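Folds vary. Our protein:
___
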Amino acid sequence: MMPQNDGPPTGDRGGGRDPGAAAETDSAADGEIAIEDVAGGDGGNGGSGGDATGPEPATAADAAGSEPEPDDGSLTRGAEHDGTSPPPDMDPARLYGMLQAEAAKSSRYEQKLKLALADYQNLTKRTASEIEAGVAAKLGGLVSDVLGVRDDFVRARDTFAREQVDTEGLDSILRNVDSVLERYDVRPIDALGEIFDPNMHEAVSSEVDPMLDENTITKELRRGYVMKNTIIRPSMVVISKKE
């Protein structure tokens, strides 16, 4: 039979340790292990503490390096613009100057456009006038030739009339010619009894007649014609003189 020990029981097989001291020692040991785990030290657990704490947080330098750098223009504007005043490209004085420059440019273009339009209108009028004058000249030449033929018919009729030959056929031809001339606005110039006008009459001789005013047309040797305010040929006349 084993002898009984009346002393206090020991906490381990080694004996001699106080249970309270052993508890404190274990607690301290546990605390040191916990601290090493949190710090991620290389303990006997093979670095398991690093896995528990996760990846280290990114520093400010790393965060700044990961962001894209702005271009030079934005950096310049950011440096100059402090947030209290508009950026240089939105400066009111600069915008007003640009507006004035564009207004002056627009005014110059408008003036050039007006000049070009005026030149075009003048060219159109001048061209139309030249065309009309050219057509009138050609038509005037044709009418003048027709009038020469008419003069021949008139002389033939007068000759037959003096010889007491029937001139009914010639009279009918002359009426037709006069109708065609009138259709083209070709009209005879009234000369007998009118005062001589060098623009419309051509004086070939004069005769003294104290009863008439000076330069009064007394005879018409050849009838003159006008077409649309254009003299085709002047009247050939005789004028009076006082003495």
Summary: Residues 98-184 form one domain. The first helix runs from residue 19 to 39. Helices lie at 19-39, 48-53, 60-66, 72-80, 92-162, 168-183. Confidence is low (pLDDT under 50) at residues 1-55, 60-66, 70-79.
